[in-house]
Amino acid sequence: MFRLFRPRFQPATIDSLYGVIVAQARVPDFYEEFGVADSADGRFELVVLHLALMTRRLARESEGAALVNALVDRFGRDMDDNLREMGVGDLTVPKKMKRMFEALYGRTRVYQGALDETGSDALEAALRRNVFGGHEGAVAALAAYVRRAARELDAAAGGQILAGRLAFPAPRAILAELAMTRSAESPPDETT
To answer: 71-90: per-residue pLDDT in tens?
Structure first.
């Protein structure tokens, strides 16, 4: 009987997964090299982006829906705590939380749809609009990062993810690979 009331996932698993998402969203390379605004909005967008990548992967697991719900609940508690730490009043928090959840669900749907489209620049358009606020930034580099992260999450063993053990790719490695690709594709300088 007690099994009915036991949580499906240990809080440590949810905290671990959410901790990896938040830690990755705070990697300085995103702000220093990719051009994401180092602001509350910029950090929010990167948390949402990484959460969208994770929920996309979890959808393939038998217990994925329950884990996604637990992660979204954890996201909500974190955002609520952050708003209150920033001094947002009790009457305003629910309105801001509603907008945050609308942003999460809308962006998740758009990012996941864009990742499923091959040969499209829908992902670049979504990142330009959401993460960079319409400014160019390093949209192509961030899109390459997102695609790599999705591939690596897809390749990860379900048990590893359900146990709360995962890693995202290093953003700086994506930039280095793009630079190497560009230099290999550019014609040699023939001015001598």
So the answer is: 888 988 988 888 888 887 78
Q: How far apart are CA 109 and CA 25, in angstroms?
A: 19
Q: Output b/e per residue, 112-128; b: 16+ Cβ within 10 A.
A: eebbeeeeeebbbebbb
Q: Decide: 166 and 153 in contact? Cβ < 8 Å.
A: yes
Residue numbers of the chain with a pLDDT score lower than 50: 1-7, 192
In residues, how long is the chain?
A: 192
